[in-house]
Write a structure and sequence with these properties.
single chain, 117 residues, mainly beta, Immunoglobulin-like, 1 helix, 48% strand
Length: 117
Protein backbone atom coordinates (compact mmCIF):
# COMPACT_ATOMS: atom_id res chain seq x y z
CA UNK A 1 0.00 0.00 0.00
CA UNK A 2 1.37 3.43 -0.94
CA UNK A 3 1.92 6.13 1.60
CA UNK A 4 3.38 9.60 1.99
CA UNK A 5 5.32 10.54 5.13
CA UNK A 6 7.52 13.43 6.24
CA UNK A 7 9.80 14.54 9.02
CA UNK A 8 11.92 17.61 9.76
CA UNK A 9 15.32 17.90 11.38
CA UNK A 10 16.37 21.23 12.90
CA UNK A 11 19.98 21.49 11.67
CA UNK A 12 20.60 24.70 13.63
CA UNK A 13 20.12 22.86 16.93
CA UNK A 14 20.81 19.26 15.88
CA UNK A 15 17.40 17.90 16.87
CA UNK A 16 13.96 16.99 15.51
CA UNK A 17 11.77 20.00 14.67
CA UNK A 18 9.07 19.16 17.22
CA UNK A 19 6.07 21.46 16.91
CA UNK A 20 6.70 22.67 13.35
CA UNK A 21 3.52 23.24 11.33
CA UNK A 22 3.21 21.41 8.01
CA UNK A 23 0.47 21.61 5.38
CA UNK A 24 -0.12 19.22 2.48
CA UNK A 25 -1.81 20.41 -0.73
CA UNK A 26 -2.86 18.60 -3.88
CA UNK A 27 -1.98 20.63 -6.98
CA UNK A 28 -4.21 20.77 -10.04
CA UNK A 29 -2.88 23.29 -12.53
CA UNK A 30 -2.70 26.58 -10.63
CA UNK A 31 -5.17 25.42 -7.94
CA UNK A 32 -3.92 24.08 -4.60
CA UNK A 33 -6.34 22.17 -2.37
CA UNK A 34 -5.45 21.79 1.31
CA UNK A 35 -5.57 18.12 2.35
CA UNK A 36 -3.98 18.22 5.81
CA UNK A 37 -2.55 20.74 8.27
CA UNK A 38 -0.55 19.12 11.07
CA UNK A 39 1.97 19.82 13.80
CA UNK A 40 5.01 17.55 13.97
CA UNK A 41 5.41 15.38 17.06
CA UNK A 42 8.31 15.21 19.56
CA UNK A 43 10.37 13.29 16.98
CA UNK A 44 9.77 15.88 14.23
CA UNK A 45 7.42 13.48 12.42
CA UNK A 46 3.77 13.34 11.44
CA UNK A 47 1.90 10.98 13.79
CA UNK A 48 0.45 9.12 10.81
CA UNK A 49 1.00 9.02 7.02
CA UNK A 50 -0.18 12.15 5.22
CA UNK A 51 -1.59 9.98 2.44
CA UNK A 52 -2.30 6.26 2.33
CA UNK A 53 -4.84 3.78 1.06
CA UNK A 54 -7.55 5.21 -1.18
CA UNK A 55 -6.33 8.77 -0.46
CA UNK A 56 -2.98 7.97 -2.12
CA UNK A 57 -3.57 9.20 -5.66
CA UNK A 58 -0.79 9.83 -8.19
CA UNK A 59 -0.36 13.51 -8.97
CA UNK A 60 1.36 16.74 -7.98
CA UNK A 61 1.54 17.77 -4.32
CA UNK A 62 3.02 20.54 -2.16
CA UNK A 63 4.25 20.37 1.42
CA UNK A 64 4.57 23.75 3.15
CA UNK A 65 6.77 23.85 6.25
CA UNK A 66 6.42 26.70 8.79
CA UNK A 67 10.15 27.26 9.26
CA UNK A 68 10.22 30.86 10.56
CA UNK A 69 7.34 30.33 13.00
CA UNK A 70 9.10 27.23 14.36
CA UNK A 71 12.40 29.03 14.97
CA UNK A 72 10.67 32.10 16.43
CA UNK A 73 8.80 29.73 18.76
CA UNK A 74 12.18 28.59 20.06
CA UNK A 75 13.07 32.18 20.90
CA UNK A 76 15.34 32.91 17.93
CA UNK A 77 15.22 36.52 16.79
CA UNK A 78 14.80 36.54 13.01
CA UNK A 79 14.83 39.55 10.70
CA UNK A 80 11.55 40.90 9.38
CA UNK A 81 10.93 39.52 6.85
CA UNK A 82 12.82 36.32 7.65
CA UNK A 83 15.15 34.86 5.04
CA UNK A 84 13.07 31.65 5.09
CA UNK A 85 9.47 31.92 6.18
CA UNK A 86 7.36 29.09 4.82
CA UNK A 87 9.23 26.52 2.73
CA UNK A 88 7.12 25.00 -0.07
CA UNK A 89 8.21 21.72 -1.64
CA UNK A 90 6.45 20.67 -4.84
CA UNK A 91 6.79 17.03 -5.83
CA UNK A 92 5.05 14.28 -7.73
CA UNK A 93 3.69 10.91 -6.65
CA UNK A 94 3.81 8.66 -9.69
CA UNK A 95 3.47 5.09 -8.50
CA UNK A 96 0.67 3.70 -6.35
CA UNK A 97 1.98 1.19 -3.82
CA UNK A 98 5.28 2.92 -3.13
CA UNK A 99 6.35 4.70 0.05
CA UNK A 100 7.27 8.31 -0.62
CA UNK A 101 9.11 9.94 2.28
CA UNK A 102 9.81 13.68 1.96
CA UNK A 103 12.10 14.88 4.76
CA UNK A 104 13.31 18.43 5.32
CA UNK A 105 16.57 19.53 6.93
CA UNK A 106 16.10 23.14 8.01
CA UNK A 107 17.76 26.10 9.69
CA UNK A 108 16.70 29.77 9.58
CA UNK A 109 18.96 30.31 6.54
CA UNK A 110 19.07 27.02 4.60
CA UNK A 111 17.16 23.85 3.84
CA UNK A 112 17.52 20.67 1.84
CA UNK A 113 15.31 17.74 0.98
CA UNK A 114 15.45 14.38 -0.77
CA UNK A 115 13.27 11.37 -1.39
CA UNK A 116 13.85 9.23 1.66
CA UNK A 117 12.82 5.72 2.52
Amino acid sequence: MGKLTTHVLDTAHGCPAAGMAVALYRLDGSAATLLHAITLNHDGRADRPLLEGAAFVPGRYRLVFGVAAYFRGLGLVLPDPPFLDEVPLDFGLATVGQHYHVPLLASPYAYSTYRGS
